[in-house]
């Protein structure tokens, strides 16, 4: 079997499903377990730190681990960095079969810090049976020194091991999510997968096709054109007022609050309205005081000082939050404490010519966040809004996971294995 420690809602598991394999996930969070169950994934709801390894000895071909990152993440207090010497000590002791976790835990500033040492407890026990055959582990970049310690130990046990930082955007994930990775194998040379994407598309050479351009949020979400921003309200769009912003020529608008932030065509006479934000005496003279125009009517045309707005994603509510236009990958998605305001915000397009007010910010939906993590649009997330966003933010992007796992399973990924949203 493939054993998945801290399995979460199924980032690694969905990647294995795409590759035609399965795992057994160990996970404590109730709602992540419910999501896994709804997705048909095998799960033991348990505390990874307490569960015995004995049932897996002699039966485990691969081990996956993504310990909780909250203690180390830049979105939190980062007490894991303070506790790092204690975690290194725990790993060294567990590799020798000495369980000093209880004593070390009393000295930790964040009790979650020591969870990063748990995979070594499993690896030491499994190694007595010459297992696992391969290992894949993932965490935030600051955990890289710990992964290097793991790699030294694994090499001493006969593994080939590689550690480093990978950017998920280089593997087709519409998100510049950087992660510390450990790959190890008993039967092949451990090496990172070859990147498939780059910030700028590369031309074909004598050695084959170049890498594709990074996947943008617009492309992943199916928001109109993939090579330029998608506007919220394009004052002046349509006949007589400038270029139509959608390549299909169809007029589109934001859906209601349940699905805010996605572009969808609406049939006529639905009552959906466009809400232009550029108004003045001319607007009132032509349309009266009512500011809402039915969607089946043409959008109003502004002949001068038209403002073109485009969506951008603001990653959180902090002053230094990452803001990316939809023609680029998202920044790292994380949700929860200090990061609960991930929203779509309107920015002036390069050709903006006045200071008309921007549309109001719109909170990202769980479906959109899941797509930006490369989960399917219909992934069966379970729990309330906060519980779902927490699962998504903590998950491994399945597309990145698939690239990491494919060589161990003797599989080759194709572009169609992770189809983008239509």
CATH structural fold name of the largest domain: Rossmann fold
The low-pLDDT segments are 225-306
> On the 0-100 scale, what is the average pLDDT?
80
Name of the top-level CATH class of the largest domain? Alpha Beta
Summarize the amount of helix as a percent range.
10-25%
Strand order in space, largest sheet? 3-2-1-4-5-7-6
Structural class: alpha/beta
CATH architecture label name of the largest domain: 3-Layer(aba) Sandwich
Work out the helix count. 11
Number of strands: 18
Radius of gyration: 24 Å
CATH superfamily of the largest domain: Vaccinia Virus protein VP39
Q: How large is the share of residues in beta strands?
A: 15-25%
Main β-sheet description: 7 strands, mixed
Q: What spatial form do the alpha-carbon principal axes imply? A: globular
How many domains is the backbone divided into? 2
Order of SSEs: EHEHEEHHHEHEEEEHEEEEHEEEEEHHH
End-to-end CA span: 34 Å
């Amino acid at each position: 079997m493939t054993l998945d420690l801290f399995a979460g809602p199924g980032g690694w598991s969905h990647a294995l499903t795409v590759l035609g394999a399965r795992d057994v996930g160990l996970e404590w969070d109730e709602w992540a377990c419910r999501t896994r169950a709804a997705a048909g994934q095998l799960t033991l709801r348990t505390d990874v730190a307490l569960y015995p390894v004995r049932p897996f000895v002699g039966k485990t071909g691969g081990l996956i681990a993504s310990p909780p990152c909250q203690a180390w993440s830049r979105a939190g207090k980062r007490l894991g960095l303070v506790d790092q010497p204690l975690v290194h000590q725990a790993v060294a002791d567990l590799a020798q079969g000495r369980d000093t976790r209880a004593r070390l835990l009393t000295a930790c500033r964040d009790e979650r810090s020591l969870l990063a040492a748990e995979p070594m407890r499993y690896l030491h026990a499994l190694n007595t049976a010459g297992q696992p055959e391969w290992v894949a582990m993932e965490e935030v970049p600051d955990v890289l020194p710990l992964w290097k310690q793991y790699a030294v130990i694994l090499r001493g046990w006969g593994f080939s091991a590689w550690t480093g930082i990978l950017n998920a955007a280089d593997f087709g994930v519409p998100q510049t999510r950087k992660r510390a990775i450990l790959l190890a194998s008993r039967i092949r040379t451990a090496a990172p997968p070859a990147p498939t994407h780059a910030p700028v598309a590369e031309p074909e050479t004598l050695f084959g096709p170049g890498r594709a351009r990074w996947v943008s949020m617009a492309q992943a979400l199916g928001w109109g054109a993939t090579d330029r921003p998608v506007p919220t309200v394009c004052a002046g769009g349509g006949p007589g007022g400038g270029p139509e912003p959608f390549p299909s020529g169809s007029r589109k608008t934001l859906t209601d609050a349940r699905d805010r932030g996605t572009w969808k065509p609406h049939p006529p006479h639905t009552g959906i309205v466009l809400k232009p934000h550029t108004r003045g005496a001319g607007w009132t003279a032509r349309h009266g005081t009512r500011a809402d125009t039915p969607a089946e009517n043409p959008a109003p045309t502004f002949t001068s000082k038209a403002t073109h707005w485009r969506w951008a994603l603001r990653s959180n509510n902090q002053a230094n939050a990452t803001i990316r236009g939809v023609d680029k990958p998202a920044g790292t998605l994380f949700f929860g404490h200090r990061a609960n305001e991930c929203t779509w915000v309107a920015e002036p397009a390069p050709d903006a010519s006045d200071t008309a007010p921007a549309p109001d910010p719109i909170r990202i939906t769980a479906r959109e966040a899941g797509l930006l993590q490369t989960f399917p649009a219909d992934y069966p997330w379970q729990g309330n809004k906060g519980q779902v966003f927490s699962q998504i933010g903590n998950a491994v992007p399945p597309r990145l996971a698939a690239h990491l796992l494919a060589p161990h399973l003797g599989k080759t990924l194709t572009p169609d294995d992770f189809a983008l949203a239509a």
